[in-house]
Amino acid sequence: MATTAAYDEIADWYEYEFLGATGEGHADPLGLGDLIDDLLGEGTGSCLEIGCGTGIHAARVRGLGRTPVGVDLAGGMLGHARGRLPVARADAERLPFRNGSMPAVLAVMVHTDMPRYPAVLQEVARVLRPGGVFVHIGVHPCFCGGFADRGDPDRVVVRPGYLDGHWTTDSWTDQGLRDKVGATHRPLPELLHAFLDAGLTPERFAEAGGRTPLVLAARTRSAGRAGRKR
What we know:
two-stranded antiparallel ribbon
């Protein structure tokens, strides 16, 4: 994945500056923790976070009674994550877990870092046990991307480009991630179809992050499809 080297290069900046604080007390201006509480909910057993980065959501998952486990491609990010949860350096398109072995899988603000996210969702469906839950929390495809200017807090200017589906480093700010590592944009129908094509049935949706939302989240459930053979 092209973003791996970029995330390795910015791992310390991400941990100490972008998150706003060190350790578990990082800022959460988008309300991602509340979305995890609401959509993932309480449970037992392992919860695999794909693209876990520095592991900042592990404490939240653990507080729900679940056992967090993480995978990421960026070794620099995992260097920070190892003190927070068990991790493996792995490609989300080839997860090192058996078919039907996970009761829950979580993805938080990473789908734009994964150019082949539909293939990732196929892997999610493969490792989920029948009836297992997958929670997707990501940037809102309608209001975030290289086509959207969020520089004015009172309005979002949407330029042409929403329907194009592309990778770009264009961003309305130089204080965030996207001008550094880029992002792959998918229009809303393409993203929702990817859930369905993987055999993940949507149960609930949520938006967060302001009057014009920055975040779209979904709780989906495995229908028990066997998925790709390993």
